[in-house]
Amino acid sequence: MSHLNATAISRFKHLTQLHAQIIQHSLHNHNYWVSLLISHCTRLRAPPIYTRRIFNSTDQPNVYAFTNMLKFYSHIGAHTDVITLFGCLQISGVTPDAFVFPIVIKSFGKDAIVLHGHVLKTGHQSDRYVRNAIMGMYAKYGPICFARKLFDEMSERMAADWNSMISGYWRWGKRVEAHKLFTLMPERNVITWTAMITGYSNIQDLATARMYFDEMQEKNVVSWNAMLSGYSQNGFAEEAIELFNKMISSNVQPDETTWVSVISSCSERADPNLANSLVKMLNEKNVRLNSFVHTALLDMYAKCGNLEAARKIFNELGAFRNAVTWNAMISAYTRVGDLNSARQLFDKMPGKNVVSWNSMIAGYAQNGQSTMAIDIFKEMIKCSTNIKPDEVTMVSVISACGHLGALELGNWALKFINENQINLSISGYNSLIFMYSKCGNMKEAQRIFNKMKQHDVISFNTLITGFAAHGDGFSAIDLIKKMKKDGFQPDRITYIGVLTACSHSGLIKEGEKLFESIPTPDVDHYACMVDLLGRVGKLDEAKKLIEKMPMAPHAGVYGSLLNASRIRKRIDLGEFAANELFKIEPQNSGNYVLLSNMYASMGKWGNVERVRKEMKVIGVKKTTGWSFVEYNGKLHKFIVGDKSHERSDDIYKLLMELRKKMRVVGYNVDKESVLRDVEDEEKEEMVGTHSEKLAVCFAILVSEKGSSIRIVKNLRVCWDCHEAMKILSKLEGREIIVRDNNRFHLFRDGLCSCNDYW
DNA sequence: GTAGGGTTAG
Fold it and tell me: Which family is this sequence assigned to (predicted)?
């Protein structure tokens, strides 16, 4: 045994050399050699199974063997193995020494609190490292005041004690205390400074972080990485890349962590050229890449639009794939709208975590598949008991409910949030504001807004857009005033919202004043102004504004003019606008329909016919409209000509009855076309979609008498059905609320709340 | 044996 040489082992660079030694020598009951070999396994990153076999080869491991094995597990982050092995240690009757506790405390995480008493009993608290570990545990997991108490009780402190305390304060958001300790600390080291950089980065104060970075005397690669990741995680991609270049020219060798940060900044920029140059550098330097770097690269390729390269990395990673790798690939697919590929991966993925579910839910929600988003959320809470939805999940779900106008579902989701004590941040509350606005409940939307302790620009924009959809111009104007008073700078969305609100309430003076106040109005703001002028009947001014625009008008500009021309029956301008639209977007059927509706509303059926023929020649297909009603927590969807709904027969029967009833009260059914035969698809197609009639009938069938009827539809409420809803509201004696893409129309007693058809 | 830096989802 004597020729097994400790110095020789410490020079080994490869596991195979170690392996040869182990085979040559019988290691039974030789704890010294076992401990030594395990410590080299740690150094050489040996596989856990291999290392454990060495440990197991001794019948009675002593405290050194245990310590080194624990160290090995701790080093690779196998915390459950540390905990189990510590259990073995206690059972085997070996007395743990002071060396064991810091390792074990770290792996126990917040449960290490149970070890505190243990330590006191064994008297190990006199050991400075054990003391530091206990204090660090309280600093990390709280209560932070316990950590401070231990800190104050220390007669002499190591730098590590100060550093643990400082980063503990940062972790608990106590900037002032962290800073105070920093100034009090007698001998600050590189770790102290790095902790300050990270602290300020995490509260998004990059300027101060950079101040500390520039001021520190001695920097190592970790300090550079701290600054770099501060930039990259807060969206300062330019700064990150600049700092990285500086790092290279300062001759600091980047490590894997560096690459991860830089690559992720490059992903954010989505710049393929930059991506290529980074990959070139990686190849030149011939660096070892771990799975973090690979995943970052995968994400970078995906965000730069190279899905094949991303998938190639994914495939090549094979057994080295982890949950993050899978998630990155899944969202790569959802990002481009390839939900099928995303779903395929998702279904195959082992060990899904909350991010996997969130990616899939958000993927559906952002690609217009709100119903699917909610379905998969239901599946999530049904089949995975160990994965809890978090705020991100709920933001997607709530926003999906908003898009659907599904109030019952939205309330259910909110109840879920409360019952599961999910904390909401600003964006969580913003999604609630969005949902209630979209569901027509502005009171609740406002209540949530007022309840929020902090707002951001999006909070204001969401509520303003809600007011706009409800035609509440005054509230929108009040809100932009409050916004400025609170010190928020309105952005382009804010102005679009307020202008739209003015437009929907006919506030021409206020709108014009606001338009003047926009620092750099863009094409969308011009479109809003054209819409506003059009709605108040100043169509010629609208056309003049278009001619004066400093940029090329887009479809929205002419669309507004066309719509106004239709309402005001200005054939000349309508035809002008329509012709421009046909040039810009020849395949958009909506424009043809608008034009033909204009003709129809003036009884010019010949022209209607002409447009219809033109559509056929060009090959434009009218997109089918759908409407739905939320009933009993379920969404009931209706499409013209589709009779698959279970109550279909009753619905059509009711439609006939209503038609009779109308004749009795004196409406000309054919003229008003309210209940025109839905089988007449050709005419149906020309004058607009009437799926909402089916939806209304369903709602009449299932809802209580006297209650209001709420419908969501995916196309603009057209002239025809607008009239139909007015009449129906009178006939039925109740409110009908229709939400088309972003407008609310409240029909009551034969009138509509909106200003479209004055 | 202690303290500081990393990839994915809204």
Answer: Belongs to the PPR family. PCMP-H subfamily.
Beta strands in A150-256 (DSSP E): none
What's residue A1's pLDDT?
45
Rounded Cα distance between A326 and A372, Å, is 21
* SS3 per-residue string spanning A241-261: HHHHHHHHHCCCCCCHHHHHH
Q: How many residues does chain A have?
A: 758
Please give the nucleotide, over all strands, whose C1' is closest to the CA of residue A164: B3
State how beta strands A709-713 and A744-748 pair.
unpaired
CA of A248, C1' of B1: distance in angstroms: 34
How far apart CA A193 and CA A46 sit, in angstroms, is: 33
Residues 6+ apart with CB under 8 A from A564: A530, A531, A533, A534, A535, A539, A542, A570, A573
pLDDT of residue A669: 61
Summary mean pLDDT of chain A: 89
CA–CA gap between residue A176 and residue A413 (Å, rounded): 38
A91 has a pLDDT exceeding 90: yes
Place of tokens 């060495």: A54
Q: Is the CB of A292 under 7 A from strand B?
A: yes
Tell me the CATH number for domain A380-618: 1.25.40
Residue range(s) occupied by CATH 1.25.40 in chain A: 380-618
Residue A696 to residues A281, A408, A728, A734, A754: CA-CA distances in angstroms? 63, 18, 9, 11, 19
Q: Bigger pLDDT: A17 or A158? A: A158
Task: Copy the structure tokens of residue A199.
Answer: 């602290």
Q: Which residue has the tokens 């008297």?
A: A123
Backbone angles phi, psi at A614, to 5 degrees: -60, -45
**Where is average pLDDT lowest: A286-295, A376-385, A506-515, A735-744?**
A735-744
Residues 481-540 of A with CB under 7 A from strand B: none
Where helices occur in A367-441 by DSSP H, the ranges are: 370-383, 391-404, 407-419, 426-438
What's the CA–C1' distance between A95 and B2, in Å? 22
Q: Please tell me whether any atom of strand B lies within 7 Å of the Cβ of A575.
A: no
CA-to-C1' distance for A140 and B7, Å? 23
Answer whether any strand B atom is within 7 A of the Cβ of A465.
Answer: no
Query: How many Å does it take to go from CA A87 to C1' B5?
Result: 32
